[in-house]
Amino acid sequence: LDWTAMKRIQFLSAAILALAATGAAHANDPKATIADLDARLTRIGAARLEGTDTVGGKTVPALYFGDRKINNNYDVVDAVRKAHSATATVFVKDGDEFVRVSTNVLTPEGKRGVGTQLARNAAYEAVSKGGTYCGPIDVLGTPFDACYHPIKDAGGKIIGVSYIGHKK
């Protein structure tokens, strides 16, 4: 190899390492990950409630994005796990609770944690008031860097919550 070719290889190697480092940092950025989850849901269509559905043995409102029912549908949360190595959940508002209707979070028995409720914590307080929570959170005994966003219908009413978490 001549000197020019070696310099090109060094430059490309440095560029590849820089891109890899940027990608790794971005992959564990909770705000970027929740933005991706929300964008994936929004691309499907507008959020709305229609009827009820049974999730984890509980009857809860059926949450739709466009024509796709999210209850018991795991395509989007699994895609977020694959893209970001993150846990992801979509909750539906049921009275004053938020119930997991789509999640890649597993119970200690290894089953998806659908039908379980969002704990009464800082995230619950923020999203109940229409705000976002990003910060440390405990999910079933495991510490995460997480983000929670309210899901609103066309009229601006809170009908659910989106969540992502990166294990600490």
How does this model look, in words?
The chain is of the alpha+beta class and 168 residues long. It has 4 helices and 8 strands; from the N terminus they run H-H-E-E-E-H-E-E-H-E-E-E. A 5-stranded antiparallel β-sheet has the order 5-4-8-7-6, sandwiched between helices. It has a 3-stranded antiparallel β-sheet with strand order 1-2-3. The longest helix is centred in the first third of the chain and has 25 residues, at 3-27. It is globular and about 65 Å long. It starts with a helix and ends with a strand. Mean pLDDT is 87; it is low at 17-26.
* Overall radius of gyration: 19 Å
- Counting H and I runs of at least 4 residues, what is the number of helices? 4
Q: Shape, please?
A: globular
Taking the sheet with the most strands, its summary is: 5 strands, antiparallel
SSE pattern? HHEEEHEEHEEE
Percent of residues in helices: 25-40%
Strand order of the largest sheet: 5-4-8-7-6
Q: Into which percentage range does the β-strand content fall?
A: 35-45%
Q: What is the average per-residue confidence, as pLDDT, rounded to a whole number?
A: 87
The unreliable regions are: 17-26
Name the structural class. alpha+beta
According to DSSP, the number of beta strands is 8
Distance between the termini: 45 Å
